[in-house]
Each structure stands twice: as C-alpha cells, then as structure tokens.
Amino acid sequence: MADLKPQMDISFAEIFLCSALAACFAEFCTLPLDTAKVRLQLQKKAVTVDAVGIPKYRGLLGTIATIAREEGLPALWKGIVPGLQRQCIYGGLRISLYGPVKTYLVGGEFIGDIPLYHKILAAFLTGAIAILVANPTDLVKVRLQAEGKLPAGVPRRYAGALDAYFTIVKQEGLGALWTGLGPNVARNAIINAAELASYDQVKQMILKIPGFMDNVLTHLLAGLGAGFFAVCIGSPVDVVKSRMMGDSTYKNTLDCFIKTLKSEGFLAFYKGFFPNFGRLGAWNVIMFLTFEKAKNFFGGEA
Questions:
Q1: pTM for this predicted structure
Q2: Inter-residue contact 140 to 162 (CB < 8 Å)
Q3: Measuring CA to CA, which residue among 114, 43, 58, 11 is closest to residue 275?
Q4: Beta bridge partners of 105
Q5: Over the stretch 56-77, which tens digit does the pLDDT of each residue have?
Q6: CA angle 238–51–149, rounded 5-degree value
Q7: Closest Cα to residue 283, out of 13, 37, 15, 67?
Q8: pLDDT (tens digit, 9 = 90+) per residue, 121-158?
Q9: Alpha carbon of residue 115 to chain centroid
C-alpha cells in the first residue's frame, strides 16, 4: 500500500481485525507513556509536592518513576482494559473505514495519486465516526488513569473498568459516558487526520525515492512522521479532552479552554508534549508496523 487502501485481496472484516489487533498491541506497549501524559496534563500549577512549589510530576521519565514509586509498577497500566476496548472499537473502525471513505470521496473510477486534502478529509471523518462509538471506553480509561492523583487516604472511586462503567451510569446517568464528547471528537478527528493522512502521504513520498521499498524502514519513518504531526496538531484539544474527562469542575469545552488559558497560559495546552510525542511516536511506529505485517499475512505475503 502506498496508502492505507489494501492492494491485495483483503476483506473489510480482515482489515478491521488487522487494525484492531495492531492498535491493541501498540496500546499495551505504550500505555505507561500515556498514563504519564495524562498525569502531566491534569497537573495544575497549584499541585506541588511541598510549599516550595515543586511540581509533583516533572518530565516523562520523572512522572513514570514517581507513579511507579508511589503507586507500584502496575499503576502505569491503569486503564488498560478500557484502553484495549477502545482500540478494538476505535482503532478498528478508523483504519478499516479510511480506505472505503477515501475511495468514495474521489470516486471508484479515480486513477492516480489521491490528493492530500481527500486523505485528510477521509481520515477526519473516520476518526469522528469511530470515537462517537468508542467515547465511553475513552472516558473510563482517563478516569482510571487519573485515580492516582487523588490525595493519600482518599478512597478510590472505581474498583476497575467494569465497576467504573456501572458507577458512572448509576451516579451520573447514561449520557455521562459521553462526557467530553465535543473535545474528544475534535481531538480524535484531528489526530486521526494527522496520523493516517501523514502516514499515507509520507509513505507515498518515500516510495518514490530511489532505493526505498515497501518495507520495515519505510513503515518506521512514515510512522514517526505520523506521530510527530499528530502531536503538533492535536495537543491543545488533547489537553482539554483529558481535563474534561478527568475533572468534573468544568462546565463545557469552552469553559475548560478559557480557564486553562487564563490560569496557566497558552503553553499549558502543550503540557506533556514530549511524553505525548514519545507515546504517539512509539504508538504509531508499533501500530503501523504490526498492521502492515498482519495485512501481509492475510494477503498471503507473510
């Protein structure tokens, strides 16, 4: 594939399975980085270790070390169950729908390189559609990841993923599972457009360079490019999404944006940028490498 549209004879169900498996594997490998990112995004200037004003979480490795030391190593994988549930639904849908939607936009008779704006629009639409279905799993994942920031002695709200679903519905209503849907749709539609369209485009460009083939190196470079563009474009909405889901004090998306901007400044929207890039860069590399291998297996090229 110069893009994400399968060139061998693979069904929609097989593409869905390949993308869901690849997304779940990438999620498991990189969740500690995501947990660190969420803690950094939820951390406000007032949250300090002592009166000196030193932030509790500092940097990617420092945050991971702090979580592991204070809460135990398994805490880095908090939210893994809803995280995998999310990737099965969201990861499977956003990639498997990308090819058909892209083909629909340009027309079935189109021949040649698909324009970049069509790739961006196709990825934007599939990202929005997929997260509409998967938002409850994203909410529970963030809530579980945020549990560790509660003060010592304060009882945890949820015993696990299943308990979180039932507790949220019981205490806040069924609609609460779609809390933060606005910023989440914006975040995932934008990031999906950045990831899939950039991977698609970068890979296509690399394959035109003499000596480059459709192999692991090409997938690696395209995956890193996808992760970088996704973080640069999606960080602000990602921060707002994490805060909306992890902190119920905000009235709505705009309220969260304004309060964050007023109290912490514009750079607050890029909190956790490096752990976010570390996570998304690694996530995209692992996911696309696994996806390509799985797709080749189903296509008889393994």
A1: 0.74
A2: no
A3: 58
A4: none
A5: 888 778 888 999 998 899 989 9
A6: 35
A7: 37
A8: 999 999 999 999 999 998 898 888 777 666 666 777 88
A9: 25
